[in-house]
Structures are given as C-alpha cells and as structure tokens.
Amino acid sequence: MQPPIPFRKGHGTQNDFVLLPDLADALELTESRVRALCDRRMGLGADGVLRVVPSEVDADTWFMDYRNADGSIAEMCGNGVRVFARYLVDAGLVKRGGFVIGTRAGDRRVEVHDDDTVTVHMGAVRVFGESSATVQNMLFPGVAVDVGNPHLGCQLPEGSTVDVLDLTAQPGYDRALFPNGVNVEFIQELGPDAIRMRVHERGVGETRSCGTGTVAAVKSWLHSKNRTTGSATVDVPGGQVSVVITDDGSTLTGPAEFVAEGTLSSQWWTAHR
Ligand SMILES: N[C@@H](CCC[C@H](N)C(=O)O)C(=O)O
C-alpha cells in the first residue's frame, strides 16, 4: 500500500502549483495523476506540478520536475522555480542565499532573499522569428522567443488594452514555427519601464501569471523598440514581477508564497494511476 504522500500548495503571482517532495525519486507521477492533482474540483487545483527530486547529474543540486496541468512536460517554469527555491530553503534542504536548481532547460541560479522574494537567473533569451497569433479572428503580430521554452510575444498597438481579449480558447499560431506548441503573451506598454501582460499557457490555458512569459514579454517589447537589452516591471493579473535582460542573460524577480501543506490520500493516489 502506498504511504500518504506529502504535498505543499504554493504560488508565484497566482500561478499556482502543487509541490511534491520526492527526495528518494520514488513517486510514479503519471499524466493522469498530474491532471487529477491540478483539477480544481476532483483534486487540489493548480496550473502545474513541481516534483522535487535529486539531480541525476550533480549530487548537490535539486531538480525541478515540472508538469503542466494537462500532464505534459515543459522545459522550464519561471514562477515555479521561485516557489521550488523557497521550498528548498524552508525545508532545510539548502541554505538561504544563492544556489543552483536543475531544470530541463539547464541549471538556473537562484537567490532567495531575506523577504522571501526570489531572483532567478533565467539564462539567454533569444528572438527566433516574426510570427502572429489569432484571437477571435483578430491578428496580433509578434515575435517568437526562446526562454528555454517557446513563447510568442505579441505587442498590442499603442492605446490598446489587454483587458478586452478573450483568452478562453487557445490563440491560433503557426504550427510549423512552434511544432511543440507555444505560450502566447499579449503585451501592453504602461510606461518607459513598465508593461502589462496576459498569457495563454501551453498545456494549461489562461493563467494569472507566467514567469518565463514575463521574460519573453520584456524581450518582445524591447525588440519592438529595436532594443536588445533593458529592464521592466511586468504587471500580470496575479501581481507584479521585475525582469532584467542583458547581453548574456536575464533575471526574473518576484514573490513565492505558500498556501497549505498536507498529505494526499493513498486511496486517491492509487485511484488516479
Ligand atoms: N507558468 C510557467 C510556464 C510553465 C510551462 C509552460 N506552460 C510551457 O508549457 O512551456 C512559468 O512561470 O514560466
């Protein structure tokens, strides 16, 4: 019989996660279990799952096994990695300060600050093409951005607001350019160093924030001004984060909050295999 499984529920700017500490790398986290966990009625409810496992490459590093709510695997999650980092400190698995977390997009250095906000070194951000998204027969020009996972950042024309967009359905996108799907950001300029963003996430739907999406949004916004580097605050429906993009990397800083902790019922876990 499966012993009860501990979990934590947390969020970063309301992009929410079920965190499963699996220090012995023994949990069988199937697609069906991820979908059930993330379901807001039959499960705990979340945009994704963060499984905490030892890295196979480096004995001193913890690996973030991230899954989208539909059970799919993604390379990276910027809000998730902040919650993950805070968990490692809270659980006494690493010391507060700077350390490295393994992800499918590569190692990410994080700094957990005294106020529990977290800065993540998100690595290189690359624009790899011009494209567009379609929402309710309206075309939004944008650029394809690689933040370890794929994004399409669409800058709204001056004077437009992201509020009016209906993001209940997946925006249309070029399947040849994004063969593995894409996260789509809609960006509104607020000022010289401030933007707003809404996002439709691959494997989830519209979320209240997407950390990699905020980095992609700042890169797209800078690109629309013929700039490659710069910084901005990004307002999302769930709060605010700060992004800095330099020639050789990028950082994302924002909150990481815990909501609850408990154990999953063994019966429930077995029923959803
Ligand atoms: N919410 C995340 C991104 C999660 C992965 C994304 N849905 C994908 O499939 O690439 C973030 O905070 O970055």
| CATH topology group of the largest domain | Diaminopimelate Epimerase, Chain A, domain 1
Strand content: 35-45%
Instruction: Please estimate the helix content.
Output: 10-25%
**Ligands (ions, cofactors included):** the ligand N[C@@H](CCC[C@H](N)C(=O)O)C(=O)O
| CATH level 1 class label of the largest domain | Alpha Beta
Measured on Cα atoms, how large is the radius of gyration?
Answer: 18 Å
Mean pLDDT: 97
| Shape type | globular
Number of DSSP E strands: 17
Write up what this structure looks like.
This protein is of the alpha+beta class. It has two domains: 5-122 and 256-271, Diaminopimelate Epimerase, Chain A, domain 1 (Roll); 126-248, Diaminopimelate Epimerase, Chain A, domain 1 (Roll), CATH 3.10.310. Helix content is 15%, strand content 43%. The protein has a 17-stranded mixed sheet that branches. The mean pLDDT is 97. The chain binds the ligand N[C@@H](CCC[C@H](N)C(=O)O)C(=O)O. The ligand N[C@@H](CCC[C@H](N)C(=O)O)C(=O)O binds at residues 15, 48, 68, 74, 77-80, 149, 183, 201-204, 207, 210-213. Homodimer.
Question: Summed up, what is this model?
Answer:
The chain has four helices and 17 strands. It has 273 residues and is an alpha+beta fold. The chain folds into two domains: 5-122 and 256-271, Diaminopimelate Epimerase, Chain A, domain 1; 126-248, Diaminopimelate Epimerase, Chain A, domain 1 (Roll), CATH 3.10.310.
